[in-house]
Amino acid sequence: MRLNAVTVGTSKPRELAGFYARLLGAEVGKADDDWADDDWVEVRVPGGFTLGFERERHFRRPVWPAEAGEQTASQHLDVEVDDLDEAVRHAVACGAVPAGVQPQEDVRVLFDPDGHPFCLFLG
């Protein structure tokens, strides 16, 4: 078995795929003809990994850190970087927002445009 993709639920698959394509230096593509253009979009990340973005009709923005009674983040992506400060600047320029809580010195938590947290960490 090999893991080759992660699918992220979103209310706007194409827009969120565009964000991650800019962030990761990848391209946006359609999975296949079985899906409507606005319901499923893929980003093929250099190195062979795929991020899928699937429309969730009742998407609720996650809250992180978790709060009782709120929609919590079900996953987050960890992105290895060489220069943390430069990577944060790039992510913000792409549309990310730094989290108010930064739990580690060598990791930065940010939110994508849908509110999913992701981490940049020094490799």
UniProtKB/TrEMBL annotation:
GO terms for molecular function: dioxygenase activity; lyase activity. It holds the Pfam family Glyoxalase_6. InterPro entries: Glyas_Bleomycin-R_OHBP_Dase, Glyoxalase_6, VOC_core. The keyword Oxidoreductase applies. Keywords: Dioxygenase, Lyase, Oxidoreductase. Residues 2-123 form the VOC domain. This is Catechol 2,3-dioxygenase-like lactoylglutathione lyase family enzyme. It comes from Lentzea atacamensis.
